[in-house]
């Protein structure tokens, strides 16, 4: 029993660190990789390769093929999490500073809590949680306030709406994954990646005509970012998140949302030459503070 508990604790810690650091770095990775290859095509190539590898590993290790219902469920979750959620994040970082997109994604717990309250558990969040949601959105409003003239803003605001839509899709996928019949862990992750990759490829054909022709022109920097996204970001990062979403308390899994933007902001500044203005720092602190309050509120509700 003690060994099982220790193994669980070790795996929990390893998965949390992976999601904290790796996912925080993927924002900059997507920024670099989409300099030549458009975002939908990048996501398609990323997850088709990662999904093929993961499904092969899953089949060899688990030796259990999913039922038809499990296969459909995994495909739906894959489209929700990856095909929509992750792909529009790539679109966002292509047009905006990667650290700011990470702050938008940091509001994820608010969407998860809100939809869980409205459609699933029907349990009203605690006062502390509601306060955290309000504080987080105040921070985002300060950051992206469309009613003020930001002379130093060098990016459009429309990707904000797209990334928020992706957040909503990811939140719904996260809530449904515990309520649908799913395949075994590795096989499920592989199917989700493949389904998301196919969906992203279809989106690329529709919204990015000629995108496939950009692939031969990708730079060595872009190739390195692509393989980092496939092998580190997808195979290790997404697998860690999948394990956490099924085995860890939701309040623990949710903590990645306020670590990722710190990592993304730092790397965007250090490597991506993204500006860290006082307003960005203030808004980031408010958003992350709001997410911390949400997490504490869930713990005490």
From TrEMBL:
Residues 15-144, 158-295 form the EamA domain. The keyword Transmembrane helix applies. The keyword Membrane applies. One of its GO terms (cellular component) is membrane. The chain crosses the membrane at residues 12-30, 36-59, 71-93, 99-120, 127-144, 156-177, 189-207, 223-244, 256-272, 278-296. It is a multi-pass membrane protein. Keywords: Membrane, Transmembrane, Transmembrane helix. InterPro entries: AA-Vitamin_Transporters, EamA_dom, EmrE-like. Belongs to the EamA transporter family. This is EamA family transporter. It comes from Chitinophaga silvatica.
